[in-house]
Amino acid sequence: MGRPLPGAAATLAALLLAAAAGTVAAARAGGGAPVRMYDWHVTLDVAAPDCWQRPVLRVNGQLSPTLEVVQGEELQLTVYNDLPSDMPNVHPGLSVHWHGFDMKGYPWYDGTAYVEHCPIQVGSSFTYRFRVDEPPGTYMWHGHAGNDRVDGLAGPLIVRPKPGVAQPIPAPQYDEERVLFIDDWWHTTGAAIAMRLNRPFDANRTTNTSGAWAWANNPQGILINGRGYYGDCKLNAGGVNTAINCSVDQYWVPPGASAVQPWASAVNPGCAHENVTVEAGKTYLVRIISATSLLYTTVCFEGHDVTIVAADAVPVEPIKASALNGCVDINSGQRYDVLLKADQQPGNFWISVQGQFRPGSPSGYAVLHYKGVNETLPATKAPQPDSKQPWTLEQEAQIVMSSALLQAGAAGSNGTAGAAAFLKQALSPMPAATLNMLLNITQPLMNQTGQLRWAINNVAGQVSPPCQALLDLVKKDPRWIEKNLASPAAYNQPGSNASTLGKEEGRSGKVEVFLTAADGAANPTPPPVYPTAGTHLVPLKRGDVVQVVMQNLPANSNNGDYRIPGPGASRNATEQHPMHLHGHHFWVLGSGNGMYDPAKNAAQLNTKNPPFRDTATLPKNGWVVLRFVADNPGLWIFHCHLLWHEYMGMLFVLAEAVDELPRRPRNLPPCPETCIYNAAPWTKPYVQEKFGKSGFELP
Ligand SMILES: [Cu+2]
């Protein structure tokens, strides 16, 4: 077995593969890095990937196309906003984020709307342009404006090795590659869900015009490589070959929509399970990518024991699924490369993807199909993960840095010369922390609007300059942050809330800063105050080594307000959160139950071979400790990768060495007259007043 796609063949093969995703041309700029150019036309189409027709965002007519790039090449990717002109009234426009890329030296192109650039408006375009200095591996691209990701704007992103350059350690041996791109899927649009989430949660604040708060609820289906049957619920119950006979009354139906399943039509010629075809005797690298908006999932391969070899594009110590719980747990935003040997009697085997933690969440199924046998659904019961809980603590802690990579780093191997930027960091000894950041997570009600939010250190984050991109403001005036600092005393009044509606609409421009000295993780009791909503920035200097201690506090611990709509109930649960950091990878030192206690837990942290990742799980009712180096001037968002949690404020922005920002590109998208931020109170009158009468898909 040779390594796949060696040398120049890799580039050619990647080009051929990438053609489907819209490659325009590959050129070489005078003596510089090769340039890879793409045109992406984003359209709103009606499609039925899981058999249910709904509006879907597609790229060049495809749902979730794969983008391939080569380490060392320059990517020039032009995004055309070809959405319908009546959509923008509740749609902010488009942006694309390169999930897992550190983007060192290219902060302007990281793609978080209103942080790096204003969204691309209908009828206009923007060219992302940067050199790919990321190690070969598995990543993801996705929309990072509004809720585009949940409407389908996401896909695999694969970095191929630079031809002729030795990597620090050899790639694992395999014959061919496959991708499992996992997404949870709703039968309504992201905007419709977001509007309901923004209505008052507090029943006392609900009015006739505001409408009542409603949760996104469980997704209706799970897509694997953009395909699925939402009726797979019968398989989940253990039935065989009854995949499409579910009763529609189990599913949430959008108001006014028909509950009749549109099984076949011109735009839905037939939905199907994804067939992952393999040849007996061959070994496959399967790139598992989770783009989910809500679900933590468990991926099981019937009859095959896969081996995890990389996490978030960094090699890990190989570990078999059988040494875990038999399956591979993957949180939103994470990627695992696994080796699968087609070593069974040729046939058809289930690949099951099961939503965890949320009762009633759906399952998705694909078929591992051996070449040469008939393509049928397996006659066996699809594998289900066992019911051990909590999953996160069991698996993520067992996934550690590759010992071969650590040895290569310690030996100062010549191979490190070819290592891309953040892999070089993984090859170096982990530096001692110089700064501690304690992040308390709560789920408060906003006192004035009654909106339900996720807060980090009592601030529900939003990006709220007056219709400009934050990076623009900071580039023009590096002192913008200190000039706009809000004194915590100005709004954190005990027992009350000075936060105004205007502030919650995102017009205050206030900034909250929180840092503790590097004197060990303090664990203060949060003050009994109501939360605020606003821009949440944390300034960092170049070279800061930041140790992040993040912990889950019950609901609204900050003010003891556990109200829920309706009498007699209380709200004190916490949830798991996949935390994702832009512009960096971090060492994951450990996680555990309860509150982080430095006296007890510090000694348990893994400083020997911690994994180096970009997305890690904060466990339900627990804590996680991360460490990263501030070495990338820019504004980088740190957020929960569950789309609804991020939308509800679980984010802040690192303002890193902002006096060293690179030159601003001239072609950044202009900002529109009216900007749409996550905390805008999206009631029907609000939308009509701000954006006109023809609300798109108003629930
Ligand atoms: Cu979350």
UniProtKB/TrEMBL annotation:
Residues 1-26 form the signal peptide. SUPFAM superfamilies: Cupredoxins (SSF49503). Its cofactor is Cu cation. Keywords: Copper, Metal-binding, Oxidoreductase, Signal. GO terms for molecular function: copper ion binding; oxidoreductase activity. Belongs to the multicopper oxidase family. This is L-ascorbate oxidase-like. It comes from Chlorella sorokiniana.
